[in-house]
Write a structure and sequence with these properties.
About 45% of the residues lie in helices and about 10% in strands. The chain has 10 helices and 5 strands, in the order H-E-H-H-E-H-E-H-H-H-E-H-E-H-H. Helix 4 packs parallel to helix 7. It starts with a helix and ends in a 7-residue tail after the last helix.
Amino acid sequence: MSFFRRAASARAATTLFLVSALTVGLAAAPARAAAATYTALGDSYASGTGTREYYSDSGSCQRSRHSYPVLSAARIGATLTFPACAGATVSGVLNGQLGSLDASTDHVTVTAGGNDIGWSSVILQCALPWPTTCWSHIDNAENLIRNTLPGRLDQLYSRIRSLAPNARVAVIGYPRLFNGEECNLIARISPGEQAELNAAADLLATTIRARAVAHGFTFLDARGPFTGHAVCDDAEWLNGTSNPLGESYHPNRAGHVGYAGMVQAALLGAAGGRS
């Protein structure tokens, strides 16, 4: 065999070896796992109202890159679907936000119920100048929490589970807003009214928790993490009466960071199983 024929044969053998090795290597390389899917449902507390910066295409829904769903999705490496919308009631979530849920959905969070009891309107009524009071408004809200809200939540939670049977579902609660101090010059909410509003927030939290647990969902209670971060606290996680008014009594950016810490821990806890 000539030198040139031997060299060509050697090159061919080398090429065959490299191709075979590459093929084996590609076959042995593990496939990259698809990113988890996460759908964030709810009202203004989920969309990010209060953070003062919103996606231009979200309109009145006021979805923000500073919201806990966006922060949480980044932390857990999930692909986010984000239909949450300011002003949404439980019915609004049920009828307008569940389109992406299916058997492949990994994570769901939902914050809903506050608009069903007119919570923002009650607080703003309490903030009106004296001699206006809001005691009857608080009573009406508490009656709605006891008598109307549980059935609505049952409908929503049942539908979420039906559409997303394999998802880990975390129901996110609302915080207490007040610490008993009056620090906002443009709003008058007396210490007595603040205490009664906090009591209504407690009733709202325990009612939502009971329905969430009844459906096998995780409930994330915001009252503990937000303690020490109420309106008038040194490190506020909540806006007081604000301009524009719609930003009032919603979590600010620091509040959404606090929420994201809760959500991250809950959703990563799904590694050992579903709720």
